[in-house]
Amino acid sequence: TQGRRLIIHDTQLLTIPPRGDLDGAEAMHRRALELFRQLGHQGRMASTYANLGLILRTRGDLAEAEAMHRKALEIFKQTSKWQHVAMAYANLALVVQTRGDLDGAEAMHRKALETFEKLGDLEHVASTCNNLGVIMRTRGDLDGAEAMQRRALEINQRLGCLEGVASQYANLSVSLKIRGDLDGAEAMLREALVIDEKLGTLVAIATNYGNLGLIMRARGDLDGAEAMCRKALAIEEQLGRPEGMANQYGNLALIIEARGDLDGAEAMQRKALEINEKLGRLEDMAGDYANLGNIMKQRGEPVQARELWIKSRDLYAKIGIQHMADIVQSWIHALPQ
Predict the structure, then answer these.
(1) What distance in Å separates the CA atoms of residue 208 and residue 203, rounded to the nearest whole number?
(2) Residue 4 pLDDT more than 70?
(3) What's the rounded Cα separation, in Å, for the pair 267 and 250?
(4) pLDDT tens sequence across 42-67
(5) Dmax over Cα atoms in the chain, in whole Å?
(6) Smallest Cα–Cα separation from 89: which of 113, 120, 122?
(7) What is the Cα Rg of the chain in Å?
(8) How far apart are the C-alpha atoms of 45 and 71, rounded to whole Å?
């Protein structure tokens, strides 16, 4: 199979705690929200709703995250704070994107981008270009994705925004890996990792470890790949990020499968699927079904493989990733009738 895609950085547009104390951050934000409500500070309430939305999305509570961002959006519109309106659209887009609604996410990102460009807010122009590039890559448009993310990289370099530069190096490495340039992909990822380790941004560090693991797997270095993905998993567990844990369970499943341990691979892949189903992450569910189907095929169970691949194909088609739906359909077609 094509295997699990590299995990792509998105850009959180307000603030989440970079070192992982989600419990403390959420408690403080909720206390602040109550105080602002009592004082009638609408603008500060809106900003706090937005930050709570980011924390809740990190925890995997997409429904509550969306509710918080919509509350923020409503207040920002009422107060004509257009930069914050654009931020609210961009943050909502990330929630919608996580669910797999690429059309809805793109529409919201483009609303945000139009406003940021009018305001001359280059930092958020860059972050929104980055996220649009992620959507283009997901749809299979590598050239369009790379153009968007190189624009974001140029802006971040000009602004001296190290976190943005690291994010773009990491994202551009995805295109290089897809194009088959493993050396180039690894070099970019390691540049990103140097910056992220300096900044202490744990989510990005975990993502980079996982992606380096996938490159090592592609080279056949299964021991190195597993070590990297387990380092990534340990950080995601420390942060309490179910989304990140699911990504690493899926990556470890591919490594275990490559070792020939189909039972172990299935168990790990089902852990990923369980989380993704709970979070409603449709794109990742489609990948999980595809990889489980491959395990079943290797076991000589074509009926089960067909059932899983049909689920995968239909989900990819539903969320608009037609090139992946076509690939999975080709696997279905090649099964014995």
Answers:
(1) 9
(2) no
(3) 10
(4) 888 998 999 999 888 877 788 899 99
(5) 69
(6) 113
(7) 20
(8) 9
Q: Residue 41: CB partners within 8 Å, gap ≥ 6?
A: none
Q: Rounded to whole angstroms, what are the CA distances from 158 to 123, 154, 174, 290?
A: 10, 6, 23, 41
Alpha carbon 282 to its chain's center: 12
- DSSP classification of residue 320: T
Half-sphere exposure of 195 (CA within 13 A, CB side): 19
Structure-token match 């490159």, residue found: 215
Average pLDDT over residues 262-289: 94
Of the two residues 307 and 61, the one the predictor is more confident about is 307
What is the rounded CA–CA span in Å between residue 41 and residue 262? 57
CA–CA separation, 123 and 158 (whole Å): 10
Round to whole Å and give the CA distance between 188 and 210. 14
Q: What is the structure's pLDDT at 44?
A: 87
Query: Within 10 Å of residue 201's Cβ, how many Cβ atoms?
Result: 21
Residue 25 has a pLDDT of 83
Length of the chain: 337
The secondary element (H helix, E strand) that includes residue 122 is: helix 122-138
- Report residue 6's pLDDT band, with 50, 70 and 90 as the boundaries: very low
Residue 225 CA to its chain's centroid (Å): 20
For residue 141, the SS3 value is: coil
Cα angle: 96, vertex 101, 107; to 5 degrees: 75
**Residue 240 corresponds to which tokens in the numbers above?**
């309490």
> d(Cα 276, Cα 124) in Å, to the nearest integer?
29
Q: What's the rounded Cα separation, in Å, for the pair 203 and 64?
A: 21
DSSP conformational letter for 19: T
Please state, in angstroms and rounded to a whole number, the distance separating the CA atoms of residues 139 and 310.
Answer: 19
